[in-house]
Amino acid sequence: MVARDKGKTPSQRQLKVGETIRHALADIFSRGEIVDDVLSRYSLTVPEVRMTPDLKLATAYIYPLGGEGASEAVAQLDKHKRFLRGEVAKRISMKFMPELRFKVDTSFEASARIDELLA
Predict the structure, then answer these.
(1) Which of 41, 56, 95, 102 has the greatest number of beta carbons closer than 10 A?
(2) What is the 3-state secondary structure (H, E, C) of 9-72?
(3) Mean pLDDT throughout 17-33?
(4) Alpha-carbon gap, residue 77 to 71, rounded angstroms
(5) Assigned fold of 12-118
(6) For residue 108, what pLDDT is reported?
(7) CA angle, corner 77, sides to 74 and 79, nearest 5?
(8) Residue 101: how many CB atoms within 10 A of its CB?
(9) How far apart are CA 18 and CA 49, in angstroms?
């Protein structure tokens, strides 16, 4: 994975909570629980979820299979973030459910560029 932020390495708790949220989001996307015409066109993957040190904010990196329409999918997910936060909260047990943010995952494009340069 490409380093997304410079600074301290995440704690074990941050990694564990991020991975738990990633699994919950992937489950929601795979079951098609979001009723949206735009999102139904994409098969979304969640390669990584990064947590802030206080566990109040979760940044989910999203990548649609095929790579097309990533920004459109993220824009639609932003419209449904309140619903998604509630659905994730039903699946995991936490004292405080973090706010969700969605960003396009660029690590696949970066690795493709590296492969292209090495070939």
Answers:
(1) 102
(2) CCCHHHHHHHHHHHHHHHHHHHHCCCCCCCHHHCCEEEEEEEECCCCCEEEEEEEECCCCCHHH
(3) 94
(4) 10
(5) GMP Synthetase; Chain A, domain 3 (3.30.300)
(6) 66
(7) 120
(8) 17
(9) 5
**Cβ proximity of 85 and 99 under 8 Å:** yes
- Supply the pTM of this predicted model: 0.82
- Per-residue pLDDT reduced to its tens digit, 29-40: 999 888 888 888
- C-beta neighbour count of 21 within 10 angstroms: 25
Half-sphere exposure in the Cβ direction for 22 (13 Å, CA)? 18
In degrees to the nearest 10, what's the CA dihedral of 102, 21, 91, 96? -90
Residues 89 and 103: their CA atoms lie apart, in Å, by 20
Tokens coding 5: 């932020």
* Residue-wise pLDDT tens digits, 47-103: 999 999 999 999 999 988 877 888 899 999 999 999 999 999 999 998 899 999 999
Residues in the chain: 119
3-class DSSP state for residue 76?
helix
